[in-house]
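Good morning,

Attaching, inline, the backbone tokens for the sequence recovery test we're adding to the shared suite. The designed sequence is right after.
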């Protein structure tokens, strides 16, 4: 088990508990206590996601169960999909602005940031209209977060434009108001996956995707850098295909979660 896997398992053990000590984590995961302590006290991500009480028990800020209590604390906007869809664009934007200030997200609009927020919301509203037509209202119980932000280290920031959390999967969506695939943006969409796997734990599969909002009829899988791994890239109106690829709601006899 490499260090990232160990870090993920330790974080999951903490975030799925109601308070757990380092020696209990070591026993539960069958790893050395020194290894547990090293990660607990030296991992920048662990320091942001977990805390220790006065009885030396560790707790997770984001619970690894539904709903993910604590996800709000790291997001510009967070709610169930059902609540998101009841808000007008202006109501949603007001809440997103307030949330971005709360988490320290810079709202400098010199490059059209607020317009991109509105564009992103429009794509998500259309996505859930498509999903409700295709799979009914089950998607209303999913969770959605905009502008998810974590500090990995002093000079590293983790931003996810949109997270959609189903019963067992987390879709991490990177939005670009562009019409062509840029390999660097493909890598950008994929690079947060290991950290999101730590946040959400071993019971969730994290699926990154790149959404281009000024092109139509695009859905393809693109290599991530020089690796053999691929990442789905789509236009806004084709985003439902990404969800169907991993949930299978359009294929008769398959189950979605």
């Amino acid at each position: 088990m490499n260090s990232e896997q160990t870090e993920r398992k330790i974080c999951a053990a903490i975030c799925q508990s109601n308070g757990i000590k380092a020696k209990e984590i070591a026993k539960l995961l069958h790893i050395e206590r020194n290894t547990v302590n090293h990660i607990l006290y030296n991992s920048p991500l662990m320091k942001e996601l977990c805390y220790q009480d006065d009885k030396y028990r560790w707790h997770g800020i984001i619970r690894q169960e539904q709903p993910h209590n604590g996800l709000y604390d790291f997001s510009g906007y967070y709610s169930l999909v059902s609540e998101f869809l009841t808000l007008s664009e202006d109501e949603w934007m007001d809440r997103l602005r307030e949330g971005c200030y709360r988490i320290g997200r810079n709202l400098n609009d010199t490059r059209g940031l607020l317009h991109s927020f509105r564009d992103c919301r429009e794509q998500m509203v259309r996505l859930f209209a498509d999903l409700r037509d295709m799979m009914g209202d089950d998607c209303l119980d999913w969770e959605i977060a905009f502008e998810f932000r974590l500090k990995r280290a002093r000079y590293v920031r983790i931003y996810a434009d949109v997270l959609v959390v189903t019963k067992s999967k987390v879709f991490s969506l990177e939005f670009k108001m562009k019409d062509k695939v840029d390999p660097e943006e493909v890598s950008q969409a994929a690079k947060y996956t290991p950290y999101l796997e730590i946040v959400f734990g071993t019971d969730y599969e994290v699926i990154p995707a790149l959404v281009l909002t000024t092109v139509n009829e695009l859905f393809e899988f693109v290599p991530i850098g020089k690796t053999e791994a691929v990442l789905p890239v789509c236009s806004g109106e084709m985003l439902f295909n990404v969800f169907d690829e991993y949930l299978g709601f359009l294929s008769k006899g398959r189950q979605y979660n």
